[in-house]
């Protein structure tokens, strides 16, 4: 994959009011605009931030400058008005490749470690999150890292998300976070074709799993995702039976062989604080 076009951006605001699927949170927080992982099923592809850009999703990333200082101001104001529950991130991956150099996400965590929100959900598919264990531990039980593990089959991962980190690296990161004492969950979201061994891989790493699919999780009842034309990928893999609104139940029932009912959450409830 080509290196995405990187541009600097000086945002006027960072904390945005959370609504809809994320209504259990007060704010969303995106360290970057755009996402180099460019996942084929990403619901953001159908949102204005992507459709009005004039460049393909995955081909560009805006780096938000001055983010730490701006968040400090906004967070102080928000905390003075009531509880603050932050979802990071709703339209980008906070640990995409740019973060290795730019460290915008780390700077935001530094601000939050000094001035903790009531809760932070850190959603990623990148092993880089383990770099920030020191800051995550400062947040204690006010943070949860949610690691996307939508399949255990790396050939499936390569077909749908070729620029995203391999599954093995994500599992290793979950183990590092768990061993350090950081609260974690695995997000099988969206459900992609997987094998029967997925629950056994996740069980030693976390006691909390969320299962989500296109219909429940794309914010439009699956309409945004249907416009992306993913059927051809399922057909190429010979796995069309997984392109179904009921496919998530296959994974749910498999997880229940290793997990208690209260440990496996469905869609929106699984991402709630």
Polypeptide structure, described:
- The strands form two sheets. Strands 2-3-6-7-8-9-10-11 form an eight-stranded mixed sheet. Strands 1-5-4 form a three-stranded mixed sheet, with no helix packed on it.
- By secondary structure, the chain is α/β, with parallel strands linked by helices.
- Helix 2 packs parallel to helix 4 (104-114).
- It has helices spanning 48-51, 67-81, 98-102, 104-114, 133-139, 154-160, 167-180, 198-202, 214-217, 223-226, 231-237, 247-255, 268-271, and strands at 5-9, 15-17, 27-29, 32-33, 60-64, 85-88, 119-124, 143-148, 184-188, 209-211, 264-266.
CATH topology (level 3) name = pyruvate-formate lyase- activating enzyme
What summary fits the major beta sheet?
8 strands, mixed
Number of strands: 11
Name the average pLDDT: 93
Beta-strand residue fraction: 15-25%
How many separate domains make up the residues?
Answer: 1
Distance between the termini: 35 Å
Task: Show unreliable segments.
Answer: none
Named at the architecture level, the CATH assignment is: Alpha-Beta Horseshoe
CATH class: Alpha Beta
Structural class: alpha/beta
Please name the defining characteristics of this protein.
about 270 residues; pyruvate-formate lyase- activating enzyme; 3-stranded mixed sheet; 11 strands; globular
Please give a quick description of this structure.
The protein has 273 residues and is an alpha/beta fold.
Task: Outline the secondary-structure elements.
Elements: E1 5-9, E2 15-17, E3 27-29, E4 32-33, H1 48-51, E5 60-64, H2 67-81, E6 85-88, H3 98-102, H4 104-114, E7 119-124, H5 133-139, E8 143-148, H6 154-160, H7 167-180, E9 184-188, H8 198-202, E10 209-211, H9 214-217, H10 223-226, H11 231-237, H12 247-255, E11 264-266, H13 268-271
Parallel strand pairs: 1-5, 3-6, 6-7, 7-8, 8-9, 9-10, 10-11
Antiparallel strand pairs: 2-3, 4-5
């Amino acid at each position: 994959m080509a290196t995405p076009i990187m541009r600097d951006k000086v945002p006027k605001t960072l904390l945005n009011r959370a609504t809809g699927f994320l209504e259990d949170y007060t704010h969303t927080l995106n360290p970057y605009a755009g996402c180099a992982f460019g996942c084929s099923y990403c619901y953001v592809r159908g949102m204005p931030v992507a459709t009005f850009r004039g460049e393909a999703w995955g081909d560009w990333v805006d780096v938000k400058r001055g983010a730490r200082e701006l968040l400090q101001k906004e967070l102080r104001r928000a905390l003075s008005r009531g509880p603050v529950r932050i979802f990071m991130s709703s339209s980008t991956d906070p640990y995409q490749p740019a973060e290795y150099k730019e460290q915008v996400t780390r700077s935001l965590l530094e601000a939050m470690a000094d001035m903790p929100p009531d809760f932070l959900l850190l959603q990623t598919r990148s092993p880089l999150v383990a770099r920030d264990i020191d800051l995550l531990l400062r947040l204690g039980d006010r943070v949860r890292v949610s690691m996307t593990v939508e399949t255990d089959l790396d050939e499936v991962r390569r077909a749908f998300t070729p620029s995203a980190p391999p599954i093995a690296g994500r599992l290793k990161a979950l183990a590092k976070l768990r061993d350090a004492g950081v609260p974690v969950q695995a997000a099988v979201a969206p459900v992609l074709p997987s094998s029967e061994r997925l629950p056994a891989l996740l069980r030693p790493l976390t006691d909390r799993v969320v299962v989500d699919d296109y219909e429940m999780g794309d914010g439009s009842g699956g309409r945004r995702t249907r416009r992306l034309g993913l059927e051809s990928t399922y057909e190429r893999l010979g796995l069309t039976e997984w392109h179904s609104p009921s496919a998530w139940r296959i994974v749910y029932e498999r997880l229940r062989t290793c997990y208690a009912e209260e440990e496996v959450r469905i869609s929106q409830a699984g991402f709630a604080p």
